[in-house]
Amino acid sequence: MSTQTEQTVQTAHAAVSQAVESTPGMFQFPDHWPAQGDVFAWCQQMGPGLAALLVLLGVVYLLFGYNIFKILVVLNAAVAGALLGISLGDKTGAVLPLAVMGAFIAGVAAMPLMKWAVAFMGGLCGALLGASLWRTFNLDPGFAWAGAGMGLIFFGLLTFIIFRGCVMTFMSLQGAVMLVFGLFGLIFKYQEVSPTVTRFFAVKPFLLPMVILIPTVLGVVFQQ
Fold it and tell me: pTM for this structure?
């Protein structure tokens, strides 16, 4: 192994260790765009129940995303509202009431505004994809918001043009992310496997986007 590769692996290990030590809870919102080490750190902290739930939901989103997309969109809106309530509750000391209220309001609001809710979900998927590609190509992380903004605008507007195809793509992408991260959460429960997986993906940074892209494409093809 070359010196540069060894430095890459050591940097990845250090990033994962630092993120694990500095993250106090599962719902702590990051103050920067998460790198691959931060994602692996979150997967290491994930409980086995949450990991199994992500795997099951990922399969549902991949296989039946378009058939039950209204239910899944409402679920996404409720989760987003709950997370917003949690972020506000951390400041006011009323986490649970605000989380429940945020989930209820967002879920109910998504029903009559289904097309706008899908566009919002597509914009978020585009923002995540744009920022991830920005970091994957080793561009300045301080301007990752530019890649996120381009992805948000493109996919958000594309929803109003190709609604059915966009719904399949967004559901498949979300399902692939949930499935892959859930599997990582289960794999990282084995301490002897965790360093090997981290080292392997640190040496090949393009592998993680490929692992997510492959089930996304298969999900779109299956739903067609």
Answer: 0.77
What token pair was written down for 44?
């290491």
For residue 203, the model assigns a pLDDT of 77
Sequence-distant (≥ 6) Cβ neighbours of residue 117 within 8 angstroms: 73, 74, 76, 77, 109, 110
Residue 188 is classified by DSSP as T
Encoded tokens for 209 = 């986007």
How many residues appear in the chain?
224
Q: Which of the residues in the chain have pLDDT under 50?
A: 1, 4-5, 8-9, 12-13, 15-26
Per the CB < 8 A criterion, the answer to whether 151 and 127 are in contact is: yes
Asked if 70 contacts 114 with a C-beta cutoff of 8 angstroms, the reply is yes
Within a 10 A sphere around the Cβ of 22, how many other Cβ atoms? 10
CB-based contacts of 104, cutoff 8 Å, min separation 6: 78, 81
